[in-house]
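Job type: complex structure
Entries:
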Amino acid sequence: MDELLRILEQNARETPENIAKMLDLSEEEVLRRIADYEGKGIIRGYRAIVDGERLDLNTVTAVIEVKVTPVREDGFNKIATRISRFPEVQSVYLTSGSFDLLLFVEGHDLREVANFVSARLSTIDGVLSTATHFMLKIYKEHGVLMENHDEYERLKVSP
Amino acid sequence: MNTNASKSVRSKIARKVLDLPRSGIRDFFEIVSTRKDIISLGIGEPDFNTPWHIREASIFAIERGATCYTSNLGLLKLRRGLADYAQKTFNLHYLADKEILVTVGVSEALDIAMRALLEPGDEVLYHEPCFVSYAPEITLAGGVAVPVTTRMEDQFRLTRSALEAKVTPKTKLLLLNFPNNPTGAVLDEAAARDIAAFAIEHDLIVISDEIYAELTYDSAHFSIASVPGMKERTVFMHGFSKTWAMTGLRLGYVCAPPELIEAMMKIHQYLVMCASTPSQEAGVEALLNGALDVHKMRESYKTRRNFIHTSFEEMGVPCIRPLGAFYAFPGIAQFGLTSHEFATRLLDEESVAAVPGTAFGLSGEGFLRCSYATSMEQIEEAMSRFERFIKRLK
């Protein structure tokens, strides 16, 4: 992967001026490349990684396994897209194994998620069955450890 | 009563130890450790954690009971891994059973090599500015330390002519450290061949501390031991500390002709028996599955190297482009302060810690070692504070 993307993945707020210095490029070149990545849809957006637990939002996230009937010539695409359009659905993955689609669904409370599964998801044509797992705790998200582990402190000066 | 007692103890301490200078780093460390909220560019170790799979392998080894001694030479599977690694990475061919010795870091390797080779009065050429241990190690082993200055105008490269000026019939060893701490200079192939010819002509043994070998940014590392005729006279030293961010695990190794390994092994077995077993197990895992870790860390250091070097250039502070290791060594003579004064004021006024060049030998006067083994945010902030500081000095 391009080093520029790696830097932005680590810290999307890094300034073009600093990135230019890090990559031995001009600032204009950095801005041009970022615009290019954005234009091509390689960079899809920039967002903060929020630790929801600290905000006491009391939202509920469920991981839902869905078995569906694939359709001739389209496979899973149509039904996956259909499910993806629900705003409460955060992520949708097609997976191999004992089920087909893996969803991450967020709601304000248990009832809302339960309602989504029973009223909306299960009733979609082609959905054969669902298995809902409620998420209890997040240890790591987007490559970031969510709990503060005491880092072992390095010496401030060493040879 | 107490004073008298301490006086009498002092009178019993060996002269050569009393005469050893205190490490300049340690002096500075003691000043820094009293301060809070400083940004440190003084760190001589990777800022990465040891990759988890390596730590996990070591934990697993402890669970299995790998807490007993190993062979004095080190675990055979580790030495086999090292033989493969040295061949693939440095084009060096060593036999696992008699040409490789696993040590407690390169520090131990240096000590036992000096002690195995030096007779009282033998001279050792080494280049300076350099890592803090070299001159004391030479002295403790009974040798005479003969520094050869490398200069900023030569990009801190070691030249044959500088060595020729200091070699005498008593010279027995040449000690090299490239990529270099603190200058960031490397030894390219042409220079290595030149110095190899010098060593052969004067019949010297070369001790080559290549602990930063994987951390070169613009060209691959070249090992002097790979020059024809050099393996026979080179003591190659390398370790896991910088490559896999394993400093505290204290794991290094030394490769040399069998007779010399045997000689060093004698000292090693009486001194430490063997390197720590869980650390050796960690080393096996690093060699087996750690290639990607090295790649990632190198790429990250490289962007920081670029950043810090360009920052100094933009400020008008002369600094060679560091080609290896993770230090920038800017020249600060133009500000009319000694390295120590500069570093102390930078710490007092801007809370930025960088090590005075004199910690690395007298020829480090006029320079400052700035480690970029710290996060980008810290480096960015340190550079803007540095700039503010020198504007006030001008």
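Summary: The CA atoms of residues 90 and 223 of chain B lie 6 Å apart. The mean pLDDT of chain B is 96.
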